[in-house]
Specification:
By secondary structure, the chain is an all-alpha fold. It is 82% helix and 0% strand.
């Protein structure tokens, strides 16, 4: 249980290993303890907690995608020579490139690569949280099956 608390603290602190922290939390709630009835009562709280994470990271994903689209347009203007002249005073670009080559410059731009990596990472966190919420939704069935199994092994059924 202490591992889950530490993982949650690290997740809240913005740890770089957020996905690993979420995995530890997920493993913690997947372990069905002997008192299945109490565990079943925790399901709504778990669902709420992970839905909050899911909503937070969905919003972060949308913002990151918008930032990527904005930066891509700015870089396209920069490489095609259509940016504001003040931009070229700060960061000169003295090459004339063909329209067909602009895509190569965009794909190799360090700022765009870094922002694309952020979008990819946040997308993987959102996907993971989506699967986690689905598992929590099915938790009631898992608990029911555990109770039925105990009844069967004890001879009640």
């Amino acid at each position: 249980m202490y591992g889950a608390r530490n993982a949650l603290k690290n997740a809240r602190a913005g740890s770089k290993n957020l996905l690993e922290n979420i995995e530890v939390l997920r493993i913690t709630f997947n372990e069905i303890t002997k008192n299945a009835i109490l565990e079943s009562l925790k399901t709504p709280q778990l669902h709420n907690k992970y839905m909050k994470f899911h909503n937070q990271y969905t919003n972060l994903l949308k913002k990151a995608e918008q930032d990527l689209a904005r930066l891509t347009r700015e870089k396209w203007e920069y490489y095609t020579g259509k940016a504001d002249p003040s931009v070229y005073q700060v960061k000169p670009f003295n090459l004339k490139i063909l329209k067909q080559d602009v895509d190569k410059y965009l794909k190799s731009d360090d700022e765009l690569i870094k922002l694309d990596q952020k979008v990819t990472y946040v997308q993987s966190v959102v996907d993971y949280l989506d699967r986690t919420v689905k598992i929590i939704s099915n938790r009631g069935f898992q608990i029911k099956n555990a109770i039925d199994w105990r009844k069967f092994t004890s001879g009640v059924i």
